[in-house]
Structure formats: C-alpha cells, structure tokens
Write a structure and sequence with these properties.
The complex is a heterodimer. By secondary structure, chain A is mostly beta strands. Chain A is 0% helix and 58% strand. Chain A has no helices and 11 strands. In chain A, the strands form 2 sheets. In chain A, strands 2, 4, 5, 9, 10 and 11 form a 6-stranded mixed beta sheet that branches. Chain B contains no helices and 11 strands. Chain B has strands at 5-7, 10-13, 19-24, 31-38, 42-50, 53-56, 65-71, 74-79, 88-95, 103-104, 108-112. In chain B, a hairpin with a 2-residue loop joins β7 and β8. Classes of the chains: A mainly beta, B mainly beta. The interface between A and B is medium-sized, with 22 and 20 residues.
C-alpha cells in the first residue's frame, strides 16, 4: 500500500534563505508526482507535476526533483520570500492497478519570516 | 477561464439537515474529483467522475453521502442527514484526463452543529 510522508510538518525560515521540502513514498511504482501549495482558508494550487520518466521540473524559483528508486521527491525554493508562506503538499499517483487515485501527504507548513 | 467554481463557500447547518455542495469544473475538463480535508486525516478523495460517469466512489464515507454529475459543467455532493463529524472543507477539482494535473476550487467550509 502506497504511503506518502512529508517531513518536517512545519518549517520556519528567515527571508532569503534557500530551502528544501521533502516528500517520501513507499512504493516506487508511480505514474507521476505533483506538488501543490495551499494558502490558509484557500484551495490548492498546482505547482509542479513530474512524470515518472522525469528527474526534475522547474518553475521560476521552484525546482522539484524525483528519485523513484529511493522513493523521494524534493521541492527546492530559492531565495524564499514571505509570500511563499503556505502549506506545501505532495501527491503521488500509482503506476498500475485498479487504484490509480492520488495518494496525499499531510503537507509541510512553511513560514518565511521577513 | 474562471477556474473551478464551488458554492457555497461557507455552510453552517444543524445536525440532521440536508447539505448540497456544488461544483462547476473548468470548461473542457472531463474528470471531476470531490475531496474532503480535515486536520486529522488530511485530503481524502471521496469520489471522481470521468465524462460524467462515477468511476470510484470507494472514498464516500457512507450512504449519507451521494454525488451526481448530470452534465459536463455541473456536479453536486449531497449529505443527508448531516452529522457534526462531517464538518470539514470539501474541495472539487477537475482535470483533462484522470491522470493529469488537477485544478482545485476554493472549497466549501462545512460546519455541522
């Protein structure tokens, strides 16, 4: 059974720092992995989607990597800003079988302090 | 595009009442997902539709929950009768193809007293 874990649950950093958020999954047979951002009281915004054949995806100051063999993905945020404060969730889609729905982590709550 | 639209944004009701949540997916998307989010359990998929047909409703908690998608631009999630433990934020998401990137609505915050 696929399980997704995000550690730490919460992170607080000063503005300008580069940081890494971690996502681990137990079954390497995945179709894709997606990173989302959720602001308090708001919906989820898709940040990056990495297909199983890809190693990384970049969007602006964000870079997501994927290492299927070790069951890990990281979201790198460069030069963090207070506006990056939010909860970041990762979700994994299994590669095969009848149950192809996204498996979600509980998220990392990020606070970037000015 | 306006994105995924959900209504109402907030709902407060009393135990035993019927609650109907509404969702309009992004135009052109053919997959629609209903999620529930709580602090304790995180995000849970309740049900999803492909081309208006329910594909997987294994996440629906019990018979009190039902969902419909009468056409490509509208879906409802109904709880009858509602209970305090149903209090959560309910999200609707849509995608073009069930395996592709999902786009979420702003959610409905439901409080059952």
């Amino acid at each position: 059974k696929q399980e997704v874990t995000q550690i730490p649950a919460a992170l607080s950093v000063p503005e300008g720092e580069n940081l890494v958020l971690n996502c681990s999954f137990t079954d390497s047979a995945i179709y894709n992995l997606q990173w989302f951002r959720q602001d308090p009281g708001k919906g989820l915004t898709s940040l990056l989607l990495i297909q199983s054949s890809q190693r990384e995806q970049t969007s602006g100051r964000l870079n997501a990597s994927l290492d299927k063999s070790s069951g890990r993905s990281t979201l790198y945020i460069a030069a963090s800003q207070p506006g990056d404060s939010a909860t970041y969730l990762c979700a994994v889609r299994p590669a095969a079988g009848n149950n192809r729905k996204l498996i979600w982590g509980l998220g990392t709550s990020l606070a970037v302090n000015p | 595009d306006a994105g995924v639209i959900q209504s109402p944004r907030h709902e407060v009701t009393e135990m035993g009442q019927e609650v109907t949540l509404r969702c309009k997916p992004i135009s052109g998307h053919n997959s629609l997902f209903w999620y529930r989010q709580t602090m304790m359990r995180g995000l849970e998929l309740l049900i999803y539709f492909n081309n208006n047909v329910p594909i997987d409703d294994s996440g629906m908690p019990e018979d009190r929950f039902s969902a419909k998608m009468p056409n490509a631009s509208f879906s409802t999630l109904k709880i009858q009768p509602s209970e305090p433990r149903d209090s959560a934020v309910y999200f609707c998401a849509s995608s073009f193809g069930e395996d592709n990137e999902q786009f979420f609505g702003p959610g409905t915050r439901l409080t059952v007293l």
